[in-house]
């Protein structure tokens, strides 16, 4: 498994918009590199958002076996 840095963002009230995204009241993980340094600073400075920097496990992708999921013969 690989580890990926994410920002876990939770709005104190649903519908908060910051960095071009509507943030719900439930936590949502966003890849940290999806934001600029300026956007991350804005997100962290917003007192209506809870922003946590966390590492999450991501399963390693394995290629599909030959003949599976490919084009149909014909």
Can you give a write-up of this model?
This protein is mostly beta strands. It has a single domain, classed as 3-Layer(aba) Sandwich (Ribosomal Protein L9, domain 1). It has 1 helix and 5 strands, in the order ββββαβ. The strands form 2 sheets. The chain has a 3-stranded antiparallel β-sheet. β2 (16-18) and β3 (21-23) form a beta hairpin. The chain is elongated and about 50 Å long. The N and C termini lie far apart (38 Å). The model has no long low-confidence stretch (mean pLDDT 87).
Strand content: 35-45%
Distance between the termini: 38 Å
Overall morphology: elongated
Number of strands: 5
What is the strand arrangement across the widest sheet?
4-1-5
| Amount of helix | 10-25%
Please tell me how large the radius of gyration is: 18 Å
Q: Which stretches are low in confidence, meaning pLDDT under 50 for 5 or more residues running?
A: none
Category by helix and strand content: mainly beta
User: Whole-number average pLDDT?
Assistant: 87
CATH topology title: Ribosomal Protein L9, domain 1
Order of secondary-structure elements? EEEEHE
Number of helices: 1
Name of the level-1 CATH class: Alpha Beta
- What CATH architecture would you give? 3-Layer(aba) Sandwich
Query: What is the count of distinct domains?
Result: 1
Q: Tell me the major beta sheet.
A: 3 strands, antiparallel
